[in-house]
Amino acid sequence: MKKELRGEERFDEIGRIDCEQICALPGVLENISISGLSARFPNPVFVDSEGEYTVFITFSRPDYMRPLEFVCVPKWKTENESETEIGFKILRSPDSPALASFISSLQETTLENSDLSDMLISPEAEFVQ
Length: 129
Description:
19% of the residues lie in helices and 36% in strands. It has one helix at residues 96-120, and strands at residues 11-18, 27-32, 36-41, 53-59, 68-79, 84-90.
């Protein structure tokens, strides 16, 4: 499995990943897009590159308290002696509509924050050396 170029915008987001098929311990969400996610598990794990996995994500945001269920296939894996990072492609899943809503809210927040930073820091600003 190798890392591939991403077509959609990725958002760094904090969340818990549960997938008993991969690891008995929960993992940590690194980032997410409408079509994929990156997860870090606390130990080396085996992943079938052609298998489908049911992944539950619990976001740290109060408006998404219940875990969302996704069917995913692994696209790449990076493993070291104490942890494993896996990139998943999200297939059509029970909570795909909720994910689309979540990603839309992240896009709106990003747009609002970029507008705010433009108001606070002038594009003509120069740093003194």
